Amino acid sequence: MPTSTRFAVAVHILTALAVSDGKPMRSEDLAYSANTSAVVIRGLLSRLIDAGLTRSQLGAGGGALLAKAAENIRLLDVYEAVEDTELFSLHRTPPCENCAVGGNILEAMQPVLARARTALETELAKSSVADIAAEVARLGKFSVPLVW
After folding, report:
1. How many CA atoms lie within 13 A of 31 on its CB side?
2. Per-residue pLDDT tens digits for 100-136
3. Per residue in 19-72, pLDDT tens?
4. Is 75 helix (H, G, I), strand (E, B) or coil?
């Protein structure tokens, strides 16, 4: 199953915005921090804007800002904003209905996959962007100022 980095990078973006002291951040600066392309950042910001998690400030000195307090942005909100929430990929083509396993595998797996998804969503709902920002500050691996 291929995985996406959208969630991790979106949390990175939101955490950077949370620690920016309310100053707008340009996509280029966010891209530098996340070590990715500004195009990737702008695509994620678009999704985050649509979800009501960020907003844009236009003009000189403009950039991205949090649309609400970091304490009010749950990681589940971020996940739902940027990821395909279908957590598990199943068969690309339907299994053989005439086979004892193929005819029953999807129905047999469904309850387990539903519980796994619920567990993931429950955990993500327990933490906020503010929690991640606090952990970043606690870790404090670098004593140099933020670069942007």
Report:
1. 14
2. 999 999 999 999 999 999 999 999 999 999 999 999 9
3. 998 899 999 999 999 999 999 999 999 999 999 999 999 888 889 999 999 999
4. helix
**Residue 55 is inside which H or E element, if any?**
strand 54-57
Hey, what amino acid is at 147? V
What is the count of structural domains for the chain?
A: 1
> Residues 23, 127, 142, CA angle at the centre, nearest 5°?
55
Spatial distance between the Cα atoms of 11 and 127, rounded to a whole number of angstroms? 11
Cα-to-chain-centroid distance, residue 143: 26
Would residue 25 count as lying in a domain? yes
Domain containing residue 41: 6-84+128-139
Q: Which residue has the tokens 């649509």?
A: 50
CATH number of the domain bearing residue 24: 1.10.10.10
CA-to-CA distance for 47 and 83, rounded, in angstroms?
10
Any residues with CB less than 8 A from the CB of 122 and at least 6 apart, and which? none
Residue with tokens 């519980």: 115
Predicted model pTM:
0.86
